[in-house]
Write a structure and sequence with these properties.
Radius of gyration: 22 Å
Strand order of the largest sheet: 5-6-7-14-13
Number of strands: 15
Shape: elongated
Oligomer: single chain
Largest sheet: 5 strands, mixed, barrel
Strand content: 35-45%
Distance between the termini: 43 Å
Helix content: 10-25%
Length: about 220
């Protein structure tokens, strides 16, 4: 459902205030089709549902992942085309989008790891296409085959220490790159946000955790 400015704060509070900076509002103009059986309903309600159905949880290339409709700015005249009983309206509206900025430090959760791929991180159930490759982990990190985990072994005061990148534990990382794959469209809009096996996810984030203060949150708790 569309949200207004007051309910957007409820969404941010639910996701976590740490993530607010990742979101932004984007102005879009598109032609929205209204089916004949919906003509008797409130126009704003119909358009809001249609826009959310078309855009919510979709990736717009180079722009980011659409969360939901924010508000409707302007509705043009309804037009009915020959051989099509539906009405078409040119609508200007704003979408709530997700795309973290480069250099942003975020707290996420490690959900998977491997020797080849490094760490995979999620932001709760909202977004899980965040990858930290092995080369972007702390210096002197290695993959422990016995534990099945990455381990950081710095030398402190002449003595080797061991810090584990634990699964299901929180991690601080910095956004290094937003990656978009221009996968084939299934409609006039962009692709769904789920993983496409042939082309990879349409939108993913590459992070790094090789700076002071980055890595597992518990390492930096005093």
């Amino acid at each position: 459902l569309p949200i207004n400015s007051s309910s957007s704060f409820q969404l941010f509070n639910k996701i976590g205030l740490l993530f607010v900076v990742m979101f932004f509002i984007s102005l879009i103009k598109d032609v929205v089709r209204i089916q004949p059986h919906l003509f008797g309903m409130d126009r704003n309600t119909v358009l809001s549902k249609s826009i959310n159905k078309l855009y919510a949880n979709k990736v717009i290339n180079k722009l980011g992942l659409c969360v939901c409709l924010f508000d409707i700015i302007e509705i043009g005249d309804l037009e009915i085309y020959p051989s099509d009983g539906a009405a078409h309206a040119t609508v200007s509206f704003r979408l709530l989008m997700f795309k973290p900025f480069i250099g942003e430090v975020i707290q996420g959760t490690v959900i998977d790891c491997s020797r080849e791929e490094g760490l995979r991180v999620s932001l709760g159930e909202f977004f899980s296409e965040i990858h930290i490759p092995p080369s972007k982990l702390q210096d002197k990190s290695h993959f422990d085959e016995t534990k099945g985990l990455w381990v950081w072994c710095p030398v402190v005061g002449g003595k080797a220490q061991e810090f584990v990148y634990g699964k299901d534990e929180d991690i601080y990382f910095m956004v290094e790159e937003n990656i978009f794959h221009d996968t084939p469209r299934k409609s006039g809009l962009e692709n769904k946000a789920h993983h496409n096996k042939e082309h990879g996810p349409p939108f993913s984030v590459q992070g790094k955790a090789n700076l002071s203060g980055l890595g597992m949150c518990q390492w930096w708790t005093y």
